[in-house]
Amino acid sequence: MSTASLQSWLSKEATVCPWTYGVLLSIGALTLVKFVFKTWVVFTQTFILPGKNLKKFGATKGAWAVVTGASDGIGKEFALQLASAGFNILLVARNEGMLSAVGAEIANRTAGKVETRIQLIDFAKNDPAALNALQTVLSSLDVGVLVNNVGKSHNMPTYFAETVEQENEDIVTININGTLRVTHAVLPGMIQRKRGLILNIGSFAGQVPSPMLATYSGTKAFVSIFTSALADEVRQHNITVQHLNTYFVVSKMSNIRKSSMLVPTPAGYVRSALSKVGLSCGAAMTGRPGTLTPFWSHAIADYLIHVVGWKARFISYTHSLHKDIRRRVLRKLEREAKKQ
Ligand SMILES: NC(=O)c1ccc[n+]([C@@H]2O[C@H](COP(=O)([O-])OP(=O)(O)OC[C@H]3O[C@@H](n4cnc5c(N)ncnc54)[C@H](OP(=O)(O)O)[C@@H]3O)[C@@H](O)[C@H]2O)c1
C-alpha cells in the first residue's frame, strides 16, 4: 500500500471509527514512551549513576563483610575489594591454604588496617556441627555485608536423566541450603543494628532456563526469587538484599581464562557490582525486583534479552551451545585418556 493510499485509508478509518483509531494511537504512543523511558533508566543506571555508599553498611566503622567461597574467583575478589573499602573480612570456604593466601593479600593491600578471619566449611556436607560453628562465629560479629557467593555447577553440560545423583544433591545443598543457612544466621544481627547488605550471586542460567545444566539453572532461579521476597521483607529494617544476575566471568568454574568485552575478570566484575549497589542496571523495569546486572556488557545483553523477549529462542540456542561444549569436553577427555 502506498503512503498516499495508507493516509487516505487511515483518515477514512478515523472518520468511520475515531475511537478505534485514537485507542490504537494511544497504545502505540504509550509503548514507545515506555521503551524510551526504560532504555534511559538502563543507560543512566549502568553508565552514570553511582550505587549506595558502602559506608552505609559499616565500612571503616569496624563492621565485617562475610564472603562465602572466598578462596578463589569472584568470591576472592569480593573479599579483597571489600577489605580495601574498609571492612574486616570473614573468609569462608574449604581450602585453608588458599584462604590464608587471600588473608595475607588483604593484610598486604590494606597495610594491616582490617582484621581477617577464616572459617573452614564444606557446604556440600551439610554437616550440623560445621554449620553451627559457622553460625556461632557469625552471631558474634557485627556483620555489615554478606556475599552469598559459594556455588557449584555441573562438571559439564549433561542431560538431567544422565546426571549423577550426588552431583545434583551437592548443587542443591551448596547453592540453596548454604545460602539459606548463612543468610538466616546473619539477619537477626542486621535487623537489630538496622543496617545491612546481602548480595546473592546468581546466574543468567537462573533467568533463562539452561538445558543440560537443569539442576544448576533451577537452583539459581531459586536464588533470584528468594532474594526478591527477602528484599521486600527486610527493607523496613534498612537492609538491602540484591540478586546479582551474573553472566560469564573469567574463573575456574566458567573455565574461561581470557577476559573479553563480554567476559570480565573477577576484579572488573566485582568493581562494577560494588559501585552499583541498590540499582538494577540491565535488569531495570523487567519485573525482577531486587535483581542487579551490574557489569556494562552484561547489562546490555540482559536488557536486549528482555526487550526482544524471545526466551524460547535463547533456550534452544543455549541447548545447542551446551551440546557442542559437551561434545568438545568428551573429545578432550578421550584424547587425554589415549595419551596415558
Ligand atoms: N564464573 C562465571 O562465569 C559465573 C557465571 C554465573 C554465575 N556465577 C556464580 O558465581 C559464584 C562464584 O563462582 P566462580 O566462578 O567465582 O567460581 P570458582 O572460581 O570456582 O570459586 C568457587 C569458590 O567456592 C568455594 N567452594 C566451592 N565448593 C565449596 C563447598 N562445597 N564448600 C565451601 N566452599 C566451596 C571454592 O573454594 P574451596 O575450593 O576452597 O572450597 C571457591 O572459593 C557461584 O555462585 C557461581 O554460580 C559464576
UniProtKB/TrEMBL annotation:
Enumerate the UniProt keywords alphabetically. Answer: Endoplasmic reticulum, Fatty acid biosynthesis, Fatty acid metabolism, Lipid biosynthesis, Lipid metabolism, Membrane, NADP, Oxidoreductase, Transmembrane, Transmembrane helix
Pfam families tied to this protein: adh_short
Q: Which reaction does it catalyse?
A: a very-long-chain (3R)-3-hydroxyacyl-CoA + NADP(+) = a very-long-chain 3-oxoacyl-CoA + NADPH + H(+)
Q: What is its EC number?
A: 1.1.1.330
UniProt GO MF annotations: ketoreductase activity; very-long-chain 3-oxoacyl-CoA reductase activity
Pathway membership = Lipid metabolism; fatty acid biosynthesis
**Topology class, membrane:** Single-pass membrane protein
Q: Which family does it belong to?
A: Belongs to the short-chain dehydrogenases/reductases (SDR) family.
Q: Relate the protein's function as given in its record.
A: Component of the microsomal membrane bound fatty acid elongation system, which produces the 26-carbon very long-chain fatty acids (VLCFA) from palmitate. Catalyzes the reduction of the 3-ketoacyl-CoA intermediate that is formed in each cycle of fatty acid elongation. VLCFAs serve as precursors for ceramide and sphingolipids.
Q: What is this protein called?
A: Very-long-chain 3-oxoacyl-CoA reductase
Organism this protein belongs to: Hydnomerulius pinastri MD-312
